[in-house]
Design brief:
about 70 residues; mainly alpha; elongated
Length: about 70
């Protein structure tokens, strides 16, 4: 996620290399005319963050079953 953020701001991977940050940065100007180009990259970023969060929560519960999250 850090690489995507830095690349979006222009400090990370530079073209012609491909990164999710370069896809979002290049399609930022097209967001009003061709929103599907920007929304595809943004949707992938949101999906990736959600998956990492869910997997992290599941691992925490599996490794430490006495944590506060498993007590309801």
């Amino acid at each position: 996620m850090a690489e995507t953020g830095l690349t979006f701001l222009g400090f990370g991977v530079q073209p012609p290399d491909v990164s999710l940050g370069t896809v979002l940065s290049d399609s930022q100007d097209l967001a009003t005319v061709y929103p599907h180009v920007f929304l595809f990259g943004a949707g992938l970023l949101v999906l990736t963050v959600l998956c990492v969060s869910v997997i992290g929560d599941a691992l925490r519960d599996a490794i430490d079953p006495t944590s506060g999250a498993s007590r309801l």
